Description:
The chain is mostly helical. The chain is 72% helix and 1% strand. The protein contains 15 helices and two strands. A hairpin with a 2-residue loop joins strand 1 (265-266) and strand 2 (269-270). It is a multi-pass membrane protein. InterPro entries: MetI-like (IPR000515), MetI-like_sf (IPR035906). Keywords: Membrane, Transmembrane, Transmembrane helix, Transport.
Amino acid sequence: MSRGTTDRTLFDRLPGFDLSRALLYLLILFFVAFFLVPLETGLMTAFKTTQGVTNTLPFFPPLGEAFTFQKWVDAFDMLGRGLVNSMVLTVPATLLCLLFGSTAAYGLTLINWRGQIFVLVLFLIGIFIPYQAVLVPLSRFWSMVPLEEWLSPLYVLSFVQPEHAQLVELIITDAAYGIPICTLLFRGYYLSLPGDLIEAAKLDGASVTSIYRRIVLPLSTPMIGVVFIYQFTQIWNEFLFTLTIVGSADSPAAPVTLILSGLGSSLSGVDFGMRMAGAFIAALPTLVIYVLFAEQFAEGLETGG
Length: 305
């Protein structure tokens, strides 16, 4: 009797044993470990002293004198200014993307007018323009716009400095770059809306604005959740535009991603514990947004996102 035949016989004798299900569980366990081990390693590193990082394996938990919470305190002190700047930048830019993306998709989907296909193609082209292709024109454009001078009346406020004009530049840039993809997401959702409802409103004499405000917008709540989570995460983690416009982590307008890139670096080396603690702190707002809009996000994906 061959060995394969013997193994099958043993498996057949085990009550309730399903070989295919066992292999499936092993595969799932492998992928869970594949994705979670780096996260666990980063978390353990963030709680270790510099000596602990050097003397222990990365995924081992910090024990005894190797444990410290000081890395989190130091990282938060370094990133505090950047967190505020990122929030000031991300929330308005995301809301602008929602507003213009939703209205543009409404005009391109539920209203018939000549030339809308051409305009839709322009939006689609805007999605595929790579970031690197616009960095030089973007830098030249903002160097010609005297935005810092226009905002000078605000400098009487003690917490506003001329460098904060760069945050306004980032808000406009990120919103302009995000509107095409938001328009496409909203358009896919609007195509799934019942046409009879829109036609009935038109027969009742409702204007284009009224239909959007009273019918389309209230029905868009699930997609608003999807787009808000997606765009908030994109803008919060954006780095190239930030590096081009702000330039330095020492600037009063530097967002968290710019400060995080140099966190823990010094002439003596890299403080991996502080850097990992900073990475988790920087990711925390996006996790909170996912939790707050999780229900709308799931519903939006289910209904056409």
